[in-house]
Amino acid sequence: MSFLSGHAGGSSAIWFLLVLLLRCCLTEKSDGALTVVENGGGGEEATVDDDDDDDDDGDLEVVQPTEQWQTLKPGQAVPAGSHVRLNLQTGQREVRLGEEQLKYWTQEHREEETKTSFSPDELKRAMKKIKEDLNPGAHQDSVGSRYRPLDELKRDMAQLDLLMETDVQIMKRLLEQLNSSDTSPEQRLNILLELEYLVHQVDNAQTLCSMGGLQLILEGLNSSDSRLQESSAFVLGSALSSNPAVQVRAVEKGALQTLLTSLATAPKLGIKKKVLFAMASLLRHFPYAQRHFLSHGGLQVLSELFRTDGSGILRTRVVTMLYDMISEKELMLQAGLDQVQDPAHEERLRQYSEVSLQGKLLEEGWCRLVPTLLQSTEHDCREKVVRTTGHNMN
């Protein structure tokens, strides 16, 4: 019993002397707050003043504390006001921001610090930008070294038979082949198919005219091969669509007379459909061509086509074309009432006033022909018939 009592009493005395010794030592040498931690921070704290042991502070590595505990290595110093503790479980000193410092370490300051920090990649890019600004010639050389000259690329592509052609070069090559006597009918069909794709672009269609391609297309309408007639009419209609410059050139080249002849003599339905498409594209928003269409017997040709069409497909297309011509004239006249004095607009109104389409339709008995389409199953067709008949009655 005495041994156990003596042992217990000795242990308590040793712990008391140890704590007293630490408090005395740390009180003499520390300015900051020091926390003695037992069992990972679960014990009581002892706050003392902590001074650096070495007088030569300039040689010490100063650690910048944060809000989290971090371990202090031997020879490291901390700024004044930091919170320092001794972890008895690890035997190492730890530091973090003091209470006064934490008071001003708000979330806003953390966000600002995060925003103003730079990643290593951002610093590299910034340094590279500075070098480029100081030496712009080197930057141009580096950019030029990454790209090959155009002439060199063309030579390489020519060796690989991959030389790129512009639309103008393609059309020039196609027209030369189309005009060649050695070209077979199948090759001509493929050429016309490619041209039809290209002339949908307004500039390409105008370039086709300047290259003499319009005359070749019109010659194709007079071909003895019905396939070439149909394809030529398709190319012509695509080139004329919404392209006033091509419309003018086509009228000057006699396209209106050629189309009327093809429409009256074409043996197949497919050819007549494509010719009607080209005719509608030529007359749309072009009062000069519409006037010549009436004076050259265009309504008589359409009337004969309307009567002989057994399928009803061509009748619908004819009525649609006539309805569009009547509607655009009325819209132009209505718009002219609200227009300010404009010489170009007045000239256009004068040209439309010379197109007497409604009177011609009444004279040639279209009021008896058009209502026959009221039996059509297509609602759009019946609507256009009613509107066209109504315009003529007015």
Summary keywords:
394 residues; mainly alpha; four-stranded mixed β-sheet; two-stranded parallel sheet; 21 helices; 6 strands; 65% helix; 6% strand; disordered N terminus
Placed side by side, the strands forming the largest sheet appear as: 1-5-6-3
What is the straight-line distance between the termini?
134 Å
Question: N-to-C SSE series?
Answer: HEEEEEEHHHHHHHHHHHHHHHHHHHH
Computed structural class: mainly alpha
**Percentage of residues in strands:** 5-15%
The number of strands is 6
Q: Mean of the pLDDT scores?
A: 77
Bin the helical content.
Answer: 55-70%
C-alpha-based Rg, rounded: 48 Å
Number of helices: 21
Most strands sheet: 4 strands, mixed
Overall geometry comes to: elongated
Low-confidence stretches are: 1-8, 25-58
General description of the model:
- There is one protein chain.
- The protein has helices at residues 2-28, 99-104, 107-116, 120-134, 136-146, 150-159, 167-178, 185-198, 202-210, 213-221, 226-240, 244-252, 255-265, 269-283, 287-295, 298-308, 313-338, 343-353, 357-363, 366-369, 379-393, and strands at 33-37, 61-62, 70-72, 76-77, 83-87, 92-96.
- By secondary structure, it is mainly alpha-helical.
- α11 (226-240) packs parallel to α14.
- The chain starts with a helix and ends with a helix.
